[in-house]
Write a structure and sequence with these properties.
The protein is of the alpha/beta class and 287 residues long. The protein is built from ten helices and eleven strands. The strands form three sheets. A six-stranded parallel beta sheet has the order 1-11-8-7-5-6. Helix 1 packs parallel to helix 10, helix 2 packs across helix 10 and helix 6 packs across helix 10.
């Protein structure tokens, strides 16, 4: 029996429609239009697509979006100067610096330079710390999108064993932290697995909820999945002319209870959560 396909594209469209109504109400009450400033350094094709999709989603939701395109040879000092100006610009509520950055720029220094109140990606140590303590200002966009999709699938997380394959600062680590918290779509028992984990398949077969965020195409196969598990595929990899996830969809769909597709799963939800954070940032700065 094939798994339930979790339609991230459909869920994200519904959330954007709800968000557009919230943005309209906020604008009527305050006269403020939430404003997201995106920075793209260089010509990475995937990054350009991501930023373009984010801009389109902003427009549909009534959020102002400004793109700052910088040359691949941009110095770290020039990038930091731009961010400093955006930090001081009261008309800008959220700042997004698209990763990856060119090799001459230190990503940590740049991400730390975004003032926490405008850090709508939730990368700043202050926002990460608040999230870890269970009192988030913002939730990191991709993990928040995954959490929403788990809820949409009707999966009970309380007491469930969640295995996170991947330990990145952007997805893996915060995903586990969010699922282990007290609260809704949480209270799970969390195990982190990664490239150094011994007997990885033995670990993943124990998962009631399996989140694949390891960056390797078709890495999670059917024999690595517990029958009936909820499988969330965060990966997006280009193989030939196809986009595939970190999960071998064809073999896993016959084993899992529910699964996100690639494309059309986690990706659209990441953008929806970014827009939600931008509205939240505008509200916080209006107070």
């Amino acid at each position: 029996m094939s798994a339930q396909i979790i339609d991230g594209k459909g869920v994200a469209a519904r959330l954007r429609k709800e968000l557009a109504e919230e943005v309209s109400q906020f604008h009527e009450a305050t006269g403020i239009v939430p404003h997201l400033a995106a920075i793209l350094v260089g010509e990475d094709p995937a990054s350009a697509v991501y930023v373009r999709n984010k801009q389109k989603a902003c427009e549909k939701s009534g959020i102002k979006s400004t793109l700052h395109r910088l040359d691949a040879a941009t110095t770290q000092a020039d990038l930091l100067n731009l961010i400093s100006g955006l930090n001081c610009d009261d008309s800008v509520h959220g700042i997004l610096c698209q990763l990856p950055l060119p090799s001459q720029i230190d990503e940590t220094t740049v991400l730390d330079s975004v003032t926490p109140i405008k850090d709508v990606d939730c990368f700043h140590p202050e926002n990460v710390g608040l999230m870890v303590q269970g009192r988030p200002r913002y939730l990191p966009c991709t993990p928040a999108g995954c959490q929403r999709l788990i809820a949409e699938a009707g999966v009970e997380t309380s007491g469930a064993h969640a295995v996170i394959v991947g330990r990145s600062e952007i997805v893996g680590k915060p995903m586990g932290m969010m699922l282990v918290q007290k609260g809704d779509v949480a209270n799970a028992t969390v195990t982190y697995a990664h490239s150094r984990t011994k007997n990885l398949a033995e670990m993943t077969r124990q998962a009631d909820i399996l989140v694949a965020a390891i960056g390797k195409p078709n890495f999670i196969r059917g024999e690595m999945v517990k029958p009936g598990a909820c499988v969330i595929d965060v990966g997006i990899n280009r193989v030939g002319d196809k986009l595939v996830g970190d999960v071998d969809f064809d073999s896993v769909v016959e084993i899992a209870g529910s699964i996100t597709p690639v494309p059309g799963g986690v990706g659209p939800m990441t953008i929806a959560m970014l827009l939600q954070n931008t509205l939240t940032a505008a509200k916080l700065q209006a107070e």
